[in-house]
Amino acid sequence: MLKKVYEILLNRFGPQGWWPVYSKNKKYEICIGAILTQNTAWNNVEKALSNLRKDNLLEPKEILRISEKKLKRLIKPAGFFNQKAKRIKRFTKFFLDNPDPTREELLAIKGIGPETADSILLYAFNKPEFVIDAYTKRIFSRFGLIKTQKYSKIKLLFEKRIKKDVKIYKEYHALIVKLAKEYCRKKPICERCPLKNICKKTESSH
């Protein structure tokens, strides 16, 4: 069923080409974006990244050079800027010392949880780690495919049933986000959803 969902979404929306990056240091920008996107919408992250880009600060050594106060001001649009500035500084030191991080090493950094770690590994380091976010939980709970909200269990479910392939993992995650924003919202638009014929929520609403 998970494979079928992927095929339907890919057919409907086409390739999403995630993660969007604009600076020369793509790997680092993805990592910073993954931290900034914690508890906020992506358009807020884009504003913060744009501020950093304008000041040529999407480079690890530049981030370490500036004061925490200045960093807070620049990333303010992404919210929780006090915590996130500390996390970015902490992560940046780690990034410079660890060119090929493991999941365990990332999770050991204060402020880096499973979703952030998996986003960094999948999109920045091209490692096959499936990212589970709030959208994934929402869609597949409604779908009747998951009965838990526990990150590790949902991740295992996807990784057991979907071929371990970086390109597929990136595409699937991006397609889930697309579906959640357009149709499977907090108040869902079931009648036009590409998954309406195979979703339990749609069946139960008739």
Word description of this protein:
This protein is an all-alpha fold and 206 residues long. The protein has 2 domains: 2-16 and 130-204, Orthogonal Bundle (Endonuclease Iii, domain 2), CATH 1.10.1670.10; 26-124, Hypothetical protein, domain 2 (Endonuclease III, domain 1, Orthogonal Bundle), CATH 1.10.340. It has helices at 2-13, 26-36, 42-54, 60-65, 68-75, 81-97, 103-107, 114-124, 134-142, 151-161, 166-182, 200-204. Helix 2 (26-36) packs antiparallel against helix 8. The chain is globular and about 55 Å long.
Strand content: under 5%
Shape: globular
Helix content: 55-70%
Q: What's the CATH architecture of the largest domain?
A: Orthogonal Bundle
Summarize the biggest pleated sheet: none
Broad structural category? mainly alpha
Q: Uncertain spans, ≥5 residues at pLDDT below 50?
A: none
Distance between the termini: 22 Å
| CATH top level assignment of the largest domain | Mainly Alpha
Q: Whole-number radius of gyration?
A: 18 Å
Stated plainly, the CATH topology of the largest domain is called: Endonuclease III, domain 1
When the domains are counted, the total is 2
Q: Helical element count?
A: 12
Give me the oligomer status: single chain
Number of strands: 0
Question: Can you write the helix and strand succession as a string?
Answer: HHHHHHHHHHHH
The overall pLDDT, averaged over residues, is: 94
CATH superfamily of the largest domain: Hypothetical protein, domain 2
